[in-house]
Design brief:
Blueprint (H helix, E strand, L loop, with lengths): L15 E2 L8 E11 L5 E11 L10 E4 L4 E7 L2 E2 L6 E2 L3 E4 L5 E10 L9 E5 L2 E5 L19 E10 L5 E4 L2 E7 L4 E12 L6 E4 L2 E8 L5 E8 L8 H18 L7 E6 L6 E2 L4 E4 L1 H4 L8 H16 L7 E3 L5 H19 L2 H20 L11 E2 L8 H18 L1 H15 L2 E3 L1 H12 L8 H4 L5 E9 L4 E9 L14 E8 L5 E2 L2 E2 L11 E5 L3 E7 L6 E3 L9 E3 L4 H10 L3 H25 L7 H11 L6 H7 L5 H5 L7 H18 L1 H11 L9 H17 L5 H13 L3 H12 L4 H14 L3 H12 L6 H8 L10 H14 L1 H4 L5 H16 L1 H5 L4 H7 L7 H15 L6 H11 L3
Parallel strand pairs: 2-12, 18-19, 19-21, 22-24, 25-33
Antiparallel strand pairs: 1-23, 2-3, 3-9, 4-8, 5-6, 5-9, 7-8, 10-11, 11-16, 12-15, 13-16, 14-15, 17-18, 20-21, 25-26, 26-31, 27-28, 27-30, 27-32, 29-31
Helix pairs in contact: 1-3, 3-4, 4-5, 4-6, 5-6, 5-11, 6-7, 7-8, 10-11, 10-12, 11-13, 11-15, 13-17, 16-17, 17-19, 18-19, 18-20, 20-21, 21-23, 23-27, 25-28, 28-29
């Protein structure tokens, strides 16, 4: 990792290095908080029982507590109040020298939740007080040791006005409640499990509640509650069901039982993302809520996974937490992997894998090739919020999946059990985790560990040959990884290669290695690639096979297999591994689009590809294929993915080529597409089983293709689906198709949707987003108008993500307008957002904006210059936040 950029934490923005990590000089046994809640002035009395850390040699350090935006009124040590000469106070810390081996520290502070526009700490939103403490927000509530390796027991007493705050929630189990004489009431919460302060959660406000329960496998009754504002409470049945499914799955697969008496799920409007605070999981509406008329099929699946993800953190992140922020992938990557495992359990596994890899390729692969490339476990950073990246989350999850593939589910489970047993109640490292997994599986994982510490995406190149006389088939795999800035070492990695061998008719062959007993499997087997060049020879092979490589994407690599178009068509239509069918389709489709892009640059008329058209026709005619997978196969790679396949990005050529191919396929397959839509489109009642989701998905893919045709009948069908659709999935698919089409029906459909859903903020986000993604030439003018719309707000993270984030990340042709207007608009929006809330501008909320600027050197010289101008404009703006300043410095650093 280079010093110029990536990645909060320290007070002055200096570089923080893993090698410099030092245990805290003090540990805190327990913390008692008494919080008098009020949106104008909240008062916090904190009692810490602390002692010096015996692991720190010669420990006579002063106690340095983190704090920001607090008004301190009292400090006492062991009951004696200190005067101001006995401590040092500055804008970010409280320092007390001369403490003995142990002490009881009392502090009283005040702050204003309403004036807290950072969306971290305790803040007010729509009359609700809510916390967001990860990664370093607790210092905005009281003075503390705000680091993940200081674990304490917390008892939290909340007091507030009974009318404004009838609900008072925190972590752990309820430990008392009552009325106060002044119109207020109180509630006490006791969390018996030690945790770092970033896992403290508080919610207070006028919220409705849904009740449920769960019985653990040991017979304990857990009380479940879902809280939300009145407008959203009827959308909380689904997250409660998802929560119960996740609890049962974690018991079955990992033996992890929930450990408290209550578990509350809270949805707060304008809350960004989701928080796993123990026993009190907090969500924004877009992360949890679902109802058929307001949520799409993908919303249902994705929100179920988010609920599961936050619950799974109870063990991977809470009971076992992380020693420092360098280890973030140990809780996030591991939990994302567990989330996708759960998804495969409740839905179609192949579809889940396709979704997972599509997200990886569209987000993380680009990160790996840009100036912000970093390992899943970095060795330095400047700002903690900038660590929350696709690499830490998504690549981290793929590394965990590789371990599961290499070791098998039983050995992986033994290692996980050992990890949980050994580090329960502790702050662990990646090395601790790998050590437990290796011991549990009795495997040497020293070479594998480089996946955590090296940046970049390996390229695997394939040579293959068939010897008919000897009946042998030879595969030679070459792996290499381009050096990223600051990491020239590209040593080979240890990876699983799941493969099968296909006959020319698509049937499976046995894959028996030379020297192996005559018991080779017919189907998928897993090989281990460890060398830069490694040969695998298969025997008793009757004909030249087509290898199906890296099945189910067994390693996060780029593959150059040297397939012909005919071989890709065979894999796309016949491979028994449905993920590889989709992957072959993506490769074939990308190849055709790049050819068309080359043709477009010359001005020669774009020619069709008959082989791909025939393969599409075969997919549409295969009734035995899961329609979920068929829909994914028929969906062309997005322009972001296409851009990763070229050296210099030509926005116009790729856009024209992809759009032209869609139009050609629609013209050539019109009758099949219409017949498929007519057969599968939803006639109700709405069901969320995976088969129904698949039928709707394939029907809407067909409708999207048909809308490429200048056909009044199809436009009328599309508008009718917006106006009369029985579920949000169909309505939104049709609305998105109309939003991309210059026709009278477009305005009618958008107006109808707005009039229907203007009072539902979550659904209205969708209305903003479909317009932000429109490929029509006036899309930027529309987005500018949307930012002036009465329903647009810079204090609403979901609305910002839908509008500004959607335009920057997914509207390729308009964001990258040749005149630079898209860049100027988004840069101005970043500055406007950062002026109000740094966490939204530079953290996870709008991180995808920077994914686009991060690749500025990949474009033509004119666009490079235009993007650089805007990056420099942001960098030169006085008073920008530390996280934003750090991210911009990384983008402008050495190539």
């Amino acid at each position: 990792m280079s010093d110029h950029g990536l990645l909060a934490g320290d007070r002055d923005g200096a570089l923080v290095r893993l090698a410099d990590h030092r245990p805290s000089a003090f540990l805190v046994e327990s913390i008692e908080l008494e919080i008098d809640l009020d949106e104008i002035v909240t008062g916090v009395r904190c009692r810490m029982r602390l002692h010096r850390n015996p692991r720190v040699d010669g420990n006579d350090d002063p106690l340095v507590l983190d704090g920001r935006g607090l008004t301190l009124s009292r400090v006492a040590v062991d009951g004696r109040e200190l005067d101001s000469s006995e401590y040092r106070l500055d804008e970010s810390s409280l320092t007390i020298a001369g403490l003995g081996s142990s002490a009881i520290l009392d502090t009283d502070v005040e702050f204003s939740p309403r004036s807290n526009h950072s969306f971290v700490g305790l803040y007010e939103t729509n009359g609700v007080l809510v916390t967001n403490c990860e990664p370093d927000g607790f210092r905005r509530i009281t003075y503390c040791l705000d680091r993940p390796d200081v674990l304490s027991r917390y008892v939290v007493t909340l007091r507030g006005d009974r009318e404004r705050y009838p609900v008072l929630l925190s972590n752990g189990n309820p430990a008392g409640a009552g009325l106060l004489a002044d119109g207020r009431h109180w509630a006490r919460w006791d969390d018996p499990f030690p945790k770092p302060c970033y896992l403290v959660g508080i919610v207070a406000g006028a919220l409705e509640r849904l009740d449920d329960h769960f019985v653990t496998r040991s017979g304990r009754l857990v009380t479940l509650g879902a809280y939300a504002e009145t407008i959203n409470i009827d959308k909380c049945h689904y997250p409660l069901r998802s929560l119960k499914r996740a609890m049962a799955w974690d018991e079955e697969i990992y033996g992890r039982e929930y450990d408290l008496d209550v578990l509350n799920l809270v949805v707060v409007s304008t809350f960004g993302g989701a928080e796993e605070t123990k026993g009190l999981n907090i969500y924004g509406p877009a992360s949890a809520l679902a109802r058929p008329d307001t949520a799409t099929d993908q919303d249902y699946l994705a929100r179920g996974f988010v609920v599961a993800h936050e619950y799974f953190h109870n063990w991977t992140g809470n009971r076992v937490t992380i020693r420092d922020w360098f280890q973030l992938t140990l809780k996030e990557g591991l939990t994302v992997f567990r989330q996708w495992q759960f998804g495969a359990h409740i839905a179609a596994p192949d579809m889940m894998r396709i979704w997972e890899v599509r997200l990886l390729r569209s987000m993380q692969f680009a990160e790996d090739t840009g100036p912000l490339a970093h390992p899943p476990r970095p060795d330095c950073y400047r700002e903690v919020p900038n660590l929350y990246t696709a690499t830490v989350y998504r690549k981290g999850a793929q590394i965990m999946r590789m371990l599961h593939t290499l070791l098998g589910p039983e050995a992986f489970r033994r290692g996980m059990d050992l990890f949980f047993d050994r580090y329960d109640g502790c702050a662990a490292t990646v090395e601790d985790f790998l050590g437990a997994i290796a011991e549990g599986a009795d495997r040497d994982l020293s070479q594998f560990s480089t996946w955590f510490t090296r940046a970049g995406t390996p390229l695997v190149r394939v040579e293959r040959s068939y010897d008919a006389a000897a009946r042998t088939f030879t595969l030679v795999l070459h792996q290499a990884c381009e050096a990223t800035h600051g990491q020239p070492d590209t040593a080979p990695r240890h990876m699983p290669v799941a493969l099968g061998l296909l006959r020319q008719d698509g049937g499976e062959m046995r894959a028996q290695l030379d020297g192996e007993a005559d018991s080779a499997p017919q189907g998928t087997r897993v090989l281990e690639l460890r060398e830069s060049r490694q040969t695998f020879r298969f025997i008793n092979v009757d004909a030249a096979p087509v290898p199906s490589l890296f099945r189910a994407f067994s390693a996060p690599i780029r593959l150059d297999a040297g397939y012909t178009d005919a071989e890709l068509a065979l894999l796309m239509t016949s491979d028994t591994d449905l993920f590889n069918r989709w992957d072959a389709a993506q490769t074939y489709e990308t190849r055709v689009i790049l050819r068309l892009a080359d043709t477009a640059r010359t001005g020669v008329p774009i020619a069709a590809d008959s082989g791909l058209t025939a393969a599409f026709a075969r997919v549409l005619d295969q009734p035995d294929v899961d329609p979920n997978v068929a829909a994914e196969i028929l969906t062309l790679p997005g322009e972001t993915v296409l851009e990763e396949a070229v050296t210099t990005i030509d926005i116009e050529a790729l856009h024209v080529a992809r759009t032209s191919l869609r139009r050609h396929l629609a013209e050539a397959l019109r009758d099949q597409l219409f017949a498929t839509w007519n057969e599968l489109h939803d006639r109700g009642p709405y069901q969320t089983d995976i088969a129904s989701i698949g039928r709707r998905s394939l029907a809407n893919v067909c409708l999207g293709y048909l809308m490429e045709l200048d056909d009044p009948e199809i436009r009328h069908i599309c508008l009718r689906q917006v106006q009369e659709g029985l579920n949000m999935t169909d309505v939104l698919a049709a609305l998105a198709a109309l939003a991309n089409t210059a026709c009278a029906e477009r305005g009618v459909g958008l107006a109808h949707f707005y009039d229907t859903w203007r009072h539902d903020p979550e659904v209205l986000d969708k209305w903003f987003e479909v317009q932000a993604l429109s490929r029509l030439p006036d899309a930027l003018a529309q987005v500018v108008a949307l930012t002036r719309h009465p329903d647009f707000s810079y204090s609403n993270p979901s609305r910002l993500r839908a509008t500004i984030g959607g335009f920057a990340a997914d509207n390729r042709i308009n964001f990258h307008a040749v005149d630079g207007s898209g860049y100027r608009f988004v840069a101005s929006q970043v500055l406007a957002i950062d002026a109000q809330t740094a966490i939204t501008a530079s953290g996870p909320g709008l991180a995808k904006v920077f994914d686009e600027f991060a690749r500025w050197r990949r474009f033509d010289p004119a666009r490079q210059a235009l993007m650089q101008v805007e990056l420099l404009r942001i960098a030169d703006t006085p008073g920008i936040s530390g996280p934003l300043r750090d991210r911009i410095a990384g983008l402008l650093g050495p190539a």
